[in-house]
C-alpha cells in the first residue's frame, strides 16, 4: 500500500513537471539502493541517473530514509525527486567529491545539460557541520549543496537544502530557471550563501532562506552575458551578511530585475557572527543583516532597469546600500534606472543608507519612494564633521565608509537625477546628525520627506557642491533650528510648497543668493 501511494505521488510530480519528467520512473529502491545503510550510495545512485538519462529521461525517486553520497552528476532530462522524509546526506569522505576542471565541488552538480531539476519534500544535507569541510576560507574542499553551470530548463521546487560548507545553491550562466518553494538553512561555516544566481530568464518565489552569508545574491561573471530578466518574489530571507544583493561580481552587469513582496528578518543565532555589537560602535543587536538591499556595480558592467517593491525588513545594519564603484577592472560601468518603493525598514546601526558613485562617475536616474525608515538614533555632532573616504577601489560593503555616516537617513554622493519621494524617518532616540547629506550631486528632487522627532541642532539637510536641488512638500512635527546648510559651491536650489512654520532658520547666508522660494509656509515671527 505504501509503495502504491509513493508511486501515485511520483506520478503527480511528473505530471506537474511534464517538460522534465518523461513517463519513466526510477525508484532507487528497485535498483538495490537501501535507505539508512550507513554506507555510501554514490556509485549506485549515479548509475541510476545515467540510466534514466540514457533512456530518454524521467524521474529518479529517493524514498523515505537517509542516503549517504558524494557528488552526483545530473544528466539531460532527469528530475531528481526526494520523497518526504528522504535525506541525501553528503559523505564525509573527501574522495567522494572528484576534482572539477573549473568549478568548486558540489553534492549535486550539473554542467551543460538541459531539462533537469530537483523536487519533492525531502532534504539535501551537504553535511557542512562536519569539520572535514572546515579547512579555512580558501579550502577547495568546501562544497556547494547544489551547483548548476551552463544549464537550461532547470526546475527546483519544494526541497530543503541545508548545511552547505560553501554556497548552498549556485546557478551560474544558466537559462530558463524556476526556483519555487524551497527552504535553505546554511549556518555551518563561512561564506554560506543561500542562492547565488547568474543567468537569464530566472524566477525565484515562495522561498524561505536563513544563512550566514548573502541570502539571495545575483552575480554577473561574464562580460558578454549580463545577468538579466530575473524575477524574485514572496520570499522570507535572513542573513548575517546581505539579504538581497546584486554584485559584487558585476562584469556583465544586471538588466531587467524585479524584486517584490519579500520579508527580510533577523538571522538565527550561529557561532560565526555573534560579534557585531562588540566590534562596530553603534550596533544594537548581536545578529543582524549587514544590508537589507545591496546594489553594487564595481567591475565594469552596467546595472539598469532594476525595480524593487514591497519589502519589509528589521534588524538590519543598513537597510539600503547602493554603490557604483571601480574595483579591479579598468573598465567603467554604469548604474542607472533604479526604482525602489514601498519599503519599511528598521535599522540598528549608525551605518545609514547610502547611494554613492565615485568622482566623475555618477549613479543616475534613481527613484526612491514610499519608504519608512526606523532609525536607532545615537549619532553625535562629530559624526557630521568626519571626512568620508572615497575608497573607490575597495570591496563594496556597508562598512566601507566606517562605522558611522554624517546623516541618519541617507548619505548621497556622486549621484544625479535622483528623486526621493514620500520618505519618513522615525528616530528611537535623539540623533545629532543630519537627516540627508548630499555631496557632489546634480538634479535632485526631494518630495514629501519628513522626520518624526528630529531633535538635532544640525541642519536637517546638508549639501556640498550640489546643482539643481528642488525640495517640496516638506513638513515636520517639531521645531527645527535649521533646515538647509551648505558648504562648497551649490546652485539652483528651489524650495516650493513646504511647511517651514516650525523652522527657525531656512538656510545659511552663504547659500542665500542661490535659493528660490515659492509658496512656502514660514515660521510665525
UniProtKB/TrEMBL annotation:
Keywords recorded for this protein, A-Z: Glycosidase, Hydrolase, Signal
InterPro entries xrefs: GH28_Enzymes, Glyco_hydro_28, PbH1, Pectin_lyas_fold, Pectin_lyase_fold/virulence
Signal peptide span: 1-21
GO molecular-function term, one example from the UniProt record: polygalacturonase activity
GO biological processes: carbohydrate metabolic process
Gene3D superfamilies xrefs: Single-stranded right-handed beta-helix, Pectin lyase-like (2.160.20.10)
Entries under SUPFAM superfamilies matching the protein: Pectin lyase-like
Domain of life assignment: Bacteria
Record Pfam families: Glyco_hydro_28
Family indicated by similarity: Belongs to the glycosyl hydrolase 28 family.
Name of protein: Pectate lyase superfamily protein domain-containing protein
Species: Bacteroides oleiciplenus YIT 12058
Amino acid at each position: 500500500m505504501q509503495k502504491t501511494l509513493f508511486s501515485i505521488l511520483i506520478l503527480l510530480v511528473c505530471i506537474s513537471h511534464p517538460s522534465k519528467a518523461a513517463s519513466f520512473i526510477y525508484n532507487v529502491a528497485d535498483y538495490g539502493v537501501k535507505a539508512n545503510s550507513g554506507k555510501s550510495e554514490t556509485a549506485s545512485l549515479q548509475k541510476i541517473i545515467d540510466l534514466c538519462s540514457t533512456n530518454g529521461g524521467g524521474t529518479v525517486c529517493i524514498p523515505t530514509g537517509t542516503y549517504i553520497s558524494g557528488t552526483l552528476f545530473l544528466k539531460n532530462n532527469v528530475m531528481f525527486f526526494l520523497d518526504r522524509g528522504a535525506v541525501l546526506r553528503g559523505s564525509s569522505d573527501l574522495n567522494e567529491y572528484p576534482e572539477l576542471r573549473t568549478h568548486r565541488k558540489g553534492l549535486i552538480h550539473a554542467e551543460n545539460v538541459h531539462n533537469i531539476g530537483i523536487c519533492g519534500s525531502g532534504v539535501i544535507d551537504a553535511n557542512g557541520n562536519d569539520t572535514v569541510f572546515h579547512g579555512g576560507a580558501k579550502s577547495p574542499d568546501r562544497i556547494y549543496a547544489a551547483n548548476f553551470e551552463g544549464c537550461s530548463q532547470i526546475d527546483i521546487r519544494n526541497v530543503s537544502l541545508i548545511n552547505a560548507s560553501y554556497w548552498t545553491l549556485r546557478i551560474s550562466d544558466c537559462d530558463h530557471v524556476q526556483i519555487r518553494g524551497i527552504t535553505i538553512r546554511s549556518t555551518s561555516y563561512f561564506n554560506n550563501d543561500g542562492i547565488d544566481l547568474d543567468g537569464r530568464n530566472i524566477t525565484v518565489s515562495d522561498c524561505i532562506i536563513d544563512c550566514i552569508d548573502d541570502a539571495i545574491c545575483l552575480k554577473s561573471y561574464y562580460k558578454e552575458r549580463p545577468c538579466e530578466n530575473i524575477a524574485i518574489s514572496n520570499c522570507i530571507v535572513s542573513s548575517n551578511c546581505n539579504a538581497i544583493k546584486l554584485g559584487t561580481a558585476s562584469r556583465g552587469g544586471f538588466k531587467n530585475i524585479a524584486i517584490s513582496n519579500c520579508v527580510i528578518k533577523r538571522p538565527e543565532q550561529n557561532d560565526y557572527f555573534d560579534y557585531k555589537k562588540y566590534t562596530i560602535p553603534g550596533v544594537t543587536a548581536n545578529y543582524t543583516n549587514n544590508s537589507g538591499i545591496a546594489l553594487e556595480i564595481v567591475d565594469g558592467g552596467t546595472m539598469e532597469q532594476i525595480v524593487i517593491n514591497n519589502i519589509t525588513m528589521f534588524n538590519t545594519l543598513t537597510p539600503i546600500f547602493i554603490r557604483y564603484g571601480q574595483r579591479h577592472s579598468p573598465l567603467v560601468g554604469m548604474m542607472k534606472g533604479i526604482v525602489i518603493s514601498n519599503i519599511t525598514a528598521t535599522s540598528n546601526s549608525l551605518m545609514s543608507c547610502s547611494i554613492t558613485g565615485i568622482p566623475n562617475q555618477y549613479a543616475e536616474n534613481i527613484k526612491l519612494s514610499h519608504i519608512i525608515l526606523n532609525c536607532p538614533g545615537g549619532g553625535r555632532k562629530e559624526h557630521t564633521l568626519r571626512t568620508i573616504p572615497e575608497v573607490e577601489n575597495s570591496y563594496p560593503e556597508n562598512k566601507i565608509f566606517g562605522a558611522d555616516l554624517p546623516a541618519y537617513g541617507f548619505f548621497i554622493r556622486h549621484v544625479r537625477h535622483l528623486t526621493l519621494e514620500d520618505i519618513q524617518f522615525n528616530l528611537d532616540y535623539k540623533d545629532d546628525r543630519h537627516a540627508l547629506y548630499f555631496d557632489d550631486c546634480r538634479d535632485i528632487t526631494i518630495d514629501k520627506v519628513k522626520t518624526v522627532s528630529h531633535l538635532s541642532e544640525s541642519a536637517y539637510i546638508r549639501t556640498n557642491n550640489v546643482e539643481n536641488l528642488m525640495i517640496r512638500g516638506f513638513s515636520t512635527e517639531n521645531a527645527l533650528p535649521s533646515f538647509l546648510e551648505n558648504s562648497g559651491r551649490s546652485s539652483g536650489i528651489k524650495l516650493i510648497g513646504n511647511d517651514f512654520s516650525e523652522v527657525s532658520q531656512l538656510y545659511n547666508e552663504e547659500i542665500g543668493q542661490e535659493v528660490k522660494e515659492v509658496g512656502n509656509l514660514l515660521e510665525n515671527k
